[in-house]
Structures are given as structure tokens and as C-alpha cells.
Amino acid sequence: MKEYNYSNIYNTYNNNLLDKLRDFKINDDLALWVPNEDITQSVINLIDSIEETEIKIIFDEKQFKSLKIDNLRQSLSHEGEINVNEISRHLIFKRLLKKQKIILKKIKKKKNSKFEDKFISDSDRTLLEKNYFINLKKIKIPKDFSKTNLVHSSLIKLDYKDEKCDIEILVNPTNHLVVDAFFQTKQKITEINSFCNYLLYSMINLPINEIKDHLLIKLEYYLRPKNFEKNKGIILKNKGGTIFNYFQIILNNFYLQYQKKNNIEFGINFYNYQIPEEWKRLNQKIKIKKIEEVLNNFNLKIGEVETDHFKVENLIESNRLFLKMGENLLKSNKNHLFFELEKFLNKNINVKFEVYYVNRTDENQLRN
User: Fold this and answer.
1) 82 with 69: CB under 8 angstroms?
2) The pTM is what?
């Protein structure tokens, strides 16, 4: 069981925000956590960002009194159980086991309610939010992306089976890339069938550790409806529906299988963040000048006046880019622009940047 002292990690985050960003030094699994001034929401974010099955969080007296335990339990009921010790001022969170059940929210149907099968337990949440599903159905996936007759004895086969689906993936042990994937659903649940097809298609030629760490985060962004942009702060992948939790469990299972079969331990996942040597050799002024040239082109796409634009504030370690936002842009809460800007910079400079904005008062200002 992992143990965290909330005061320590919260202070470390704030002290290192500008200098070290997400390099917490305490635990790498804190890399996805963004604190919040509301301690209850901050603890929810912390638990959501950690993949451990059991964690302990210790608080000081003031923090513990500020916690809304009922809200915590309600928000995390679909993920696990919270036990609170008022004497020692700590809580223990136990994540649901891998075989947990997801429950489909009941939907009234005019004609046929034949498929009322329940799937992952949370009666108040949807398997896949309606607007996410609408976007998913727009994606065209080649029917022949999976070569079912392909057999390679050198590949490592990983499989997952439950009462809902059978999934099998093949991984090249020399570079850890997924080279093929197959699935069969056992129940006629359209969301599961479509999402699984999209997930497997998206993982081809990706490393198994990158798939486990980031693939569902990326898919949530690609499927996210535009009206979600109005939300402030970090949007966690499970906001799109319990289907993301379900498939994260499966991906974690694949990852652990692969580690065991290939006898390998992965370090920090640097996939897609490798900085080209020619970029590293440039001095800081030239780097910033090149970034500003590309940024000007991007700014013209999003608005004509300066208050709609981004401006370079700082560049650290060649790819950690700090930006200031114009007044109008600051008010708009268009979170998707940071993802689009990262892709735009990557395409035009061939560097994978981590983009951050520095002139928000909200502690959930970090976006990469």
C-alpha cells in the first residue's frame, strides 16, 4: 500500500511548479495529479491520477476538518471504497478489483428494450456519454486493420477475457510495439463493440507502456464534445463514461502480463517526448525565435487581435514551453487550443512540446 502525506506532496507541487513542473521526485505516479484549493476535489484528483489498488493519505488537523467525506465517497463510489480514521487523520482508498462490473444506465426505449444487460457498477453514470458516442460513430476504421491470419512465434501474445468480451494483442518483444490486435464481444452492446474496435486500431504500432499510460487520455480528447471546453481545469478521462475505467483495467492487465512474460521493468515513459539533437544544439534565443514564428501563424488562425493570442513567456529544457494568454483568450476557457497548439508546434518544428500557461489564478492551470 502506497502512503502519501498530503501536506508534503501539496507543498512540493507548489514549490516546484515553475522549476520542476511535474518532476515530483517523491513518486513518479504523481505526475498526473493537479491539486485544487478545494481539498476534497484535490483528493479526488489525486486518487483518480494514481493507478495503485490501495493508497493511504495522511492529513493535518486543519486539512482533515476541511474534507467532505460524504462527497468523497459519493464521487469515488464507482472506483473503490474509502475508510476514514478520525483519530490518526488519514483515509485509505481501496480500488475495486479487476473483475468489477460496469452497469449500464437504464435508458427508456420506445420499441425494444431487449438488451438491458448491466455492465460496470454505477447506476448514476453512463457507460459512454451520448456526445462521445456520437463522435465515436463518425470515426471510420479500416475493416482489415487486424490481420487475423497473422502468426509469429516470436511475438508475445496477451489476452483478456471476461463475460463481456475476449481481447488478444500481439507485441514485438524487441521494441515493445503492439503489432496486431483482435477482439470478440459476447454481448450486443454497441458502445463496447465500437469503442473496443477504435481502441485496438489506435494501439497498433504503439509501445505497450505508452498504451497503458496515455492512450485512453488521448482517445477521450479525440472524442470529447466541443461543449466540454467550457469546463475549467483538467478533464479526467473517466468524465466521458465508465467505459474508460473498464478499458483502463484491461490495458493495465495487458501491461502486467507483458512485464511478466518478457521479464522487463519499464522506467519513465519518454515516448514521443524525445528531443532531436539538432534542436538541443540551438541556443535559447534561436529556439524562442523559431517558436515565436510558428506561434504567430497559429495566433492568426484563432484571432486577429493581440488579446486573442498566445505569447511566449519561457522555455525550459528545450521542450517545456510556458505561454501567456491574451485577455480574451484567458476568458474563453478553450482548453482544446493547447492540444491543437502542441500538434501545430510538433508539425512545424518537429519537437514534442509540453505546453503550459502561467497567467491563471486557478491552481488547475497546468495543461500539457
Assistant:
1) yes
2) 0.47
